[in-house]
Design a protein that fits this description.
Elements (H helix, E strand, L loop, with lengths): L2 H16 L8 E7 L4 E4 L15 E4 L4 E3 L8 H10 L5 E5 L2 H8 L9 H4 L14 H19 L10 E3 L5 E5 L2 H24 L8 H11 L10
Antiparallel strand pairs: 1-2, 1-5, 2-3, 3-4, 5-7, 6-7
Helix pairs in contact: 1-6, 2-5, 3-6
């Protein structure tokens, strides 16, 4: 069942390791088949070095196990919430990458200090609020997704394919699992550049909006002209 998607999700999870975005088992990637209403995700706590494509777990949109010998990632409810609300995404990645997580722990958005950031994210990388005590106790992973949705009330997920969960870590998404990992990699690099820029100049200001918009529109939207047709 969904063999192609399983392979895609498996390879995307290994890319988290390849790009140095995970330590131990601190991360996961999922992909969705919207026609079938099924999600494939990494199993909980399985070592990346030992993991195979056959370890991938399939659940339905309600989180019910459909296929697999392991429990799905503990972050599955967060993924399900995002898939339900962000209807145009096809993959989600979560990591505790060092620099992006530092911004999340500091509860600071990542300002757009340069065009590298602007090429991929249309503005500041947002940060959520903390979950309440009640939300944490009642259904932590589900409400993690809910605070992300809340933060995106006035944002477009496809233009801002990433978020920092306060005190936690980043989540990114994309058109498919591999695209979500790419956005996770870019987010981590942007976070590192931002921190280094602040260290070099504590009074640094964000680039002008017109430069941000120019760089973002070169790669995204109807007027994009970067790359080949």
């Amino acid at each position: 069942m969904l063999e192609a998607l399983k392979t895609e999700v498996f390879k995307a999870n290994l890319e988290l390791v390849k790009y140095g975005l995970v330590t131990l088992t601190w991360g996961n990637v999922s992909g969705i088949n919207r026609a079938e209403g099924l999600i494939v995700i990494k199993p909980s706590g399985i070592d990346y070095e030992k993991m195979t494509v056959n370890d991938m777990v399939t659940v339905d949109i309600d989180g019910k196990l459909v296929e697999g010998k392991w429990r799905p990632s503990s972050d599955t409810p967060t993924h399900l919430t995002l898939y339900e609300k962000f209807t145009k995404i096809g993959g989600i990645a979560h990591s505790h990458s060092e620099y992006a997580t530092a911004f999340a722990q500091a509860c600071r958005e990542i300002p757009c200090y340069g065009t590298t950031h602007a090429d991929h994210f249309d503005g500041r990388i947002p940060v959520t609020r903390f979950l309440t005590e009640e939300e944490t106790i009642k259904n932590y992973e589900h409400y993690t997704g809910q605070v992300i949705i809340e933060r995106f009330a006035n944002l477009i997920p496809n233009d801002m394919p990433g978020v920092l969960v306060a005190g936690h870590a980043p989540f990114t998404w994309g058109k498919d699992p591999r695209d979500s990992v790419k956005n996770s990699l870019v987010l981590e690099r942007v976070a590192k550049m931002a921190l280094n820029s602040l260290l070099l100049n504590k009074d640094i200001e964000e680039i002008p909006k017109y430069i941000l918009k120019k760089h973002y529109s070169r790669k995204h939207g109807p007027d994009a002209y970067y790359g080949q047709k």
